[in-house]
Task: structure prediction
Amino acid sequence: MSTIPATDDGAPQESPGAYEQRAFGFWLYLMSDAIIFALLFATYAVMVGNTAGGPAGKSLFSLPNTFAETMTLLVSSITFGFASIAMRAGNKNGVLIWLFVTFLLGVGFVCLE
Result:
């Protein structure tokens, strides 16, 4: 039976590349999210005038804050990424500042909703 190496406090020890794998996964998720948003905007740009005689989107939907909400979410993802970079660099104050900015953007998004 094999055992997992532990640290002094008894927590399991991570493999040397574990952080890099998690960081890569985070950035992969973030970039895939940006690609999805870009595709949605491109689809909207193509389809906005092509209704084939049916009702237009303006008559069906009321979306006054959509752009501001989307930008708030995207920027909050970026600021969280900056917090991750600051954490990797060992910059505690930078982490706290970027997480606070991310929190403020989250509050702004909730207010826009």
